[in-house]
Amino acid sequence: MDKNLIQRTISGIVYVAVIILCTTPLGAQLINGISPDLVKQQYLYYGLITLLLTVGSWECFKIMKFGKSYEKWIVFPLVILIFYMFSKRYFHHDFYFDFRLTEILALLLILIAVITLFKYPSELYYDSGKLIFTVIYVALPFSFALGLPKYSTYEDTFSLEVLFLFILIWSSDTFAYLTGKFFGKHKMAPKISPKKTWEGYIGGVVLTLILSYFIEKYQHDLRGNWMVVGFLVAAFAPLGDLVESQLKRNFGVKDSGNIIPGHGGVLDRLDSFLICAPVVYLYFILEKFI
C-alpha cells in the first residue's frame, strides 16, 4: 500500500476521532472514566476551538506573507481580543438569550472579506488589508463556532450541533466529489478549483438534504430545523473551499500547513467550516424570531 495513503488514512482517523471526542459527551466520559470529574465537555470543546483558532491564525499569517510594518505585530493581539470577548459569552451562556445587531454586522464583515478576496485581491497585498482579512476570516468564524452548541452546567449536558455540522460538511464534500466524478461536465470555477463541477454541486446539495432529513427525524434535541441546516451547509461548503483555494492561489501557496500529515493544515481541512459555522449560527439566531 502507498505510504502516503497510509499516512493520510491514519491522520484522517485521528482527526475525525478528535472532532468526535471534543464535540460530544464521549470525550468527557472517557477522560472521567480514568479520573472522575476531571473535565467537563464544554472545556474540551473550548480547547478544540482554541487550538484550531491558534493554528489557523498562524497559517493565515504565514500564507499572507506580512511585510515589516507594524500591522503584523497586532494580528494575534486582535485575534485574542475578539476570541476573548466571545469566550466570555460562551462561559456565561450568553449566546442563546438575546439578539445583537453587532453579531449581524460581524457576519457581514465575513461576506465583505470574501468579496474582497475574489473581486479586489490587490487590497490584500497591503499589510493593513492582510491584517483585517486574517482577523475576519479566522477569528470571527471560530468565535461564532462557540455559539453553536448549548450546554447546561447543572444538568451536565452538551448538545451535538457541532458534530452534526461536521458530518454534513463531510457528507457534502463526499457527495459532491462522487457526483462530480461520475457525472460532472460543467466546471464551476476552473481557474480556482478545476475539479469542481455544477453537477457535483447539485448532487452534494440533494444527497446532503436526504441525510439532513434523517438527522431532523431522529435527533430532536438539536437547535433549528436540520433540513434548513443541511441546505445551508451544502450550499455554502463549496464556497469555503473556493475561498481557501483562492487565498492560496493569490499568494502562491500549495497547503496552508502540515499539522495534519497528508491532509495539509487546519485551514485546508476546515475551509468549509469557516464559512458554514457563521452561516449556521446566523440561522440559529434568526430562527428564534421567525
Brief summary:
The chain has 290 residues and is mostly helical. The protein has one domain.
Give an overview of the whole structure.
- Strands 1-2 form a two-stranded antiparallel ribbon.
- β1 (151-152) and β2 (157-158) form a beta hairpin.
- The chain has one domain (3-287).
- With 290 residues, it is mostly helical.
- The chain is built from eleven helices and four strands, in the order ααααααββαββαααα.
- Pathway: Phospholipid metabolism; CDP-diacylglycerol biosynthesis; CDP-diacylglycerol from sn-glycerol 3-phosphate: step 3/3; Lipid metabolism.
Topology:
Elements (H helix, E strand, L loop, with lengths): L2 H21 L2 H9 L6 H24 L10 H17 L9 H19 L7 H19 L5 E2 L4 E2 L2 H23 L3 E3 L3 E5 H21 L7 H25 L15 H4 L1 H17 L3
Antiparallel strand pairs: 1-2, 3-4
Helix pairs in contact: 1-3, 3-4, 3-6, 4-6, 5-6, 5-11, 6-11, 7-8, 7-9, 8-9, 9-11
Rough outline: globular
The count of helical stretches stands at: 11
Radius of gyration: 19 Å
Note the gap between the termini: 53 Å
Uncertain runs:
none
Query: What's the number of extended β-strand segments?
Result: 4
Briefly note the structural class of the backbone: mainly alpha
Write out the strand line-up for the largest beta sheet, numbering strands in chain order: 1-2
As a percent range, the share of strand residues is under 5%
> How much is the average pLDDT?
87
| Tally of domains | 1
Major sheet, described briefly? 2 strands, antiparallel
Order of helices and strands: HHHHHHEEHEEHHHH
Keywords: Cell membrane, Lipid biosynthesis, Lipid metabolism, Membrane, Nucleotidyltransferase, Phospholipid biosynthesis, Phospholipid metabolism, Transferase, Transmembrane, Transmembrane helix
GO molecular function: phosphatidate cytidylyltransferase activity
Pfam families: CTP_transf_1
Transmembrane segments: 12-31, 43-61, 73-91, 97-118, 130-148, 160-178, 198-215, 227-245
